[in-house]
Specification:
Elements (H helix, E strand, L loop, with lengths): L12 E4 L9 H15 L6 H19 L3 H16 L5 H10 L1 H5 L8 H11 L1 E7 L2 H11 L7 E5 L4 H11 L6 E5 L2 H10 L3 E4 L20 E3 L11
Parallel strand pairs: 1-2, 1-4, 2-3, 4-5, 5-6
Helix pairs in contact: 1-3, 2-3
The protein binds magnesium ion.
C-alpha cells in the first residue's frame, strides 16, 4: 500500500470507536427491525410510517435509558403498544424476544482489514478504544473481539459527548493536536471530538443508525474522511 505524502510519521494517539467501526453492529438491529415490521403487518400504516414511529420511540429511550439491546427490545414493545393502542400481550412480548434472539447471540464480526490494520498501527501509534452503550453488552463484545491487546485502554461510556472527550484527554494526558478519534458516527465520534480539540477520522458505514447521523462541515480540515478501515495505513 502506498503511503500518503501527508502521513503522520510521528506517533499519534488513535482512539477507536467499536460498533460499526471495528465490527458490524447496526446491521443486526436493522435485520430485527425488518422482521418486526413484517410481523406487525399493520393494516393502514406502511413500513416507512411505522419506522418513523419506532425512530421517535428509540430517540426518547436513548435519552432516558441509554443504548443496547435491552433498550431496543423495550422500544419494539412500546412501538407495538402505540400502534395497537393497548398493552402488549405475553405472546407478543415472547414474539419480540424471539425476533431479537440474534442480538443476544450475535458474534463479533470484524470489518474487513481491521485485524491486520490494527496490528500494524499498534506498532507505530498509541491506541485507545472508546465505545458507548450497555456496560455488560459492550464488555462482552470487547472480550470476544480478540483485539484488546492492541489498546492501552478500552473505555465503555454511557454517551459520547464533548465532556467525555475532555475527560479522556485528562485521563491519559495527551495533546489533542496529536490525537484522532476514528469512527462511523458524526454525532458521537466526529463532532464532539472536534469540539474537544481532537482531530477525527470519519469512516462511514452504510448501516449507521439514523440516530447517529449529523451534518459534518465539509471544509473542516481536522476531519479526514476514509472509505475503508484499511485506508488508515496510508495516513498513519
Ligand atoms: Mg460506531
Amino acid at each position: 500500500m502506498t503511503v500518503d505524502a501527508t502521513a503522520r510519521r510521528q506517533a499519534q494517539v488513535l482512539i477507536f470507536d467499536a460498533d460499526d467501526t471495528l465490527w458490524e453492529n447496526n446491521v443486526v438491529f436493522e435485520r430485527v427491525i425488518d422482521d418486526f415490521l413484517a410481523w406487525l403487518d399493520h393494516p393502514t400504516l406502511d413500513r416507512v410510517q411505522i419506522r418513523a414511529v419506532l425512530d421517535d420511540i428509540e430517540r426518547a429511550n436513548a435519552v432516558a435509558h441509554g443504548y443496547g439491546s435491552k433498550v431496543f427490545l423495550r422500544s419494539l414493545g412500546e412501538c407495538l403498544e402505540r400502534l395497537r393502542e393497548r398493552p402488549a400481550t405475553d405472546a407478543e412480548r415472547q414474539e419480540i424476544d424471539r425476533l431479537a434472539v440474534a442480538l443476544v447471540e450475535h458474534r463479533v464480526e470484524l470489518m474487513p482489514g481491521v485485524a491486520d490494520a490494527l496490528d500494524e498501527l499498534a506498532g507505530r501509534h498509541e491506541l485507545l478504544l472508546l465505545t458507548k452503550g450497555d456496560q455488560v453488552e459492550q464488555q462482552r463484545k470487547l472480550d470476544a473481539c480478540g483485539l484488546l491487546h492492541h489498546f492501552r485502554a478500552a473505555h465503555i461510556v454511557a454517551e459520547k459527548n464533548v465532556e467525555v472527550y475532555q475527560w479522556l484527554l485528562r485521563e491519559h494526558g495527551f495533546d489533542p493536536a496529536g490525537a484522532w478519534m476514528i469512527g462511523n458516527s458524526p454525532k458521537s465520534d466526529i463532532l464532539p471530538a472536534r469540539a474537544a480539540g481532537l482531530n477525527a477520522v470519519f469512516i462511514p458505514n452504510e448501516n449507521t443508525w439514523v440516530l447517529e447521523d449529523d451534518e459534518l462541515d465539509p471544509t473542516d480540515a481536522g476531519v479526514l474522511r476514509l472509505a475503508e478501515f484499511r485506508d488508515l495505513l496510508r495516513h498513519f
